[in-house]
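Hey, I'm writing a tutorial for new members on how sequence and structure tokens pair up, and I'd like a real worked example in the thread rather than a made-up one. If someone can provide the structure for the chain below, I'll link this post from the tutorial.
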Amino acid sequence: LGSGSSRMLENREEELTTVRVQDPRVQNEGSWNSYVDYKIFLHTNSKAFTAKTSCVRRRYREFVWLRRQLQKNAGLVPVPELPGKSTFFVGSTDEFIEKRRQGLQQFLEKVVQNVVLLSDSRLHLFLQSQLSVPAIEACVQGQGPQTVTEAILHYAMSNCGWVQ
């Protein structure tokens, strides 16, 4: 290999985005409004993302909202499916939570590989900030205190944004 060809290889650094859904936790356990949230860990070298690593917690309901928004903006691009909202489930709660965790991870893995979906700033705020759904909406519409990029960087700079 001449020096020219190795330089070409360097420029073609592959863009890799790893997204993991981990660590399901029951919040408000024992109360009527208990729910499970999941840690979303993202590590990437893609220019599409503002922060190269991030870690947030989201619950299923927020995934449902995200998918609806992506669908609205993606036009004809098919948005991956979420794991079902089965109310009737045979098996233990742990089993159900684990199945859901896998399904949510597969959903996000497909989403972050889709250029059209990646251009939706709601997705970035969902993955890389801990803003609530209404705050994400406000931010995307320019009514929040920060721009999308600022919100993500602000979260990345706060301790919770760094992966422990």
